[in-house]
Model the fold of this input.
Amino acid sequence: MEFRHLGRSGLIISEIAYGNWLTHGSQVEEDAAAACIRAALDAGITTFDTADVYAETRAEAVLGRALKGERREGLEILTKVYWPTGPGRNDRGLGRKHVMESIEGSLRRLQTDYVDVYQAHRFDTSTPLEETMEAFADVVRSGKALYIGVSEWTAEQIRAGHALARELRVPFISSQPQYSALWRVIEAEVVPTCEELGIGQIVWSPIAQGVLTGKYLPGAEPPAGSRATDSKGGANFVARWLRPDVLEAVQLLRPLAEQAGLSLAQLAVAWVLQNRNVSAAIIGASRPEQVAENVKAAGVTLDEGLLKAIDEILAPVAETDPARTAENAPKSRP
Done:
């Protein structure tokens, strides 16, 4: 495993992080989830990402039980707040009430006294940004989080939040966007802004919901047990990539991966790690062997010729419009 600073902060994280969205507490049983976490630990992963909303709060609890007994100082645990975790009008968003109550629930489920990074899971258009940042500042000052971050905020929102964080003297160090060789919308605006402000990217879906593994073949039914067959939500997220043009382009990457001595999944994870603003790539797994395969992308350097060839193949199908971040954001509190 290789390690990187998270932005310009003093926090060092594993460049492959383990995340449990769409798996723990829903798609796989707890014993399988625990086996994947053990595989991550055995591979040298120290950074674990989750959120209160994953599997209706069950994912945090699964992670907490699996990490119990590990040396807390040797781990970096990240979680998030925003999406609904209950039926009430204030069981959602980034208002002070929900933020302060949610951190308590997350710590209880994770069985820890603090999280390393507490992240705003989306931007809350229904709450003044000043209220949100003051609440996050109080979470940090209480010792319940060491740093703060955001997920899927636009460059403009990140800049505004960072300015308030500086005024409040709170370390705002991370952004967690979707990023892969197929989804490159952060490159034009979010990445330059974060480089300027000293914020690092912890990116999710580096293998595009499994599409960049090459397991989905043009004209063929999705493999049994794959995310595309998951009726609990996974199929909805991967559907947009199951177009013939995308799947055909991915298959053209296979000889490039072989040339680099990598699987397609390893190539995809290594690709996002070539971006100097990326501090870590989050991988998920339903089987321990998936963890063992994907961590081999750590420390890999792809040469310029290979990167150019990948870009040429995927350019016709890759999404690059920076406006997509705002388009995909909630327009009002859910």
Remarks:
- The domain at 3-211+264-300+319-327 is CATH 3.20.20.100 (TIM Barrel).
- The CA atoms of residues 116 and 287 lie 26 Å apart.
- The chain has one domain: 3-211+264-300+319-327.
- The radius of gyration is 19 Å.
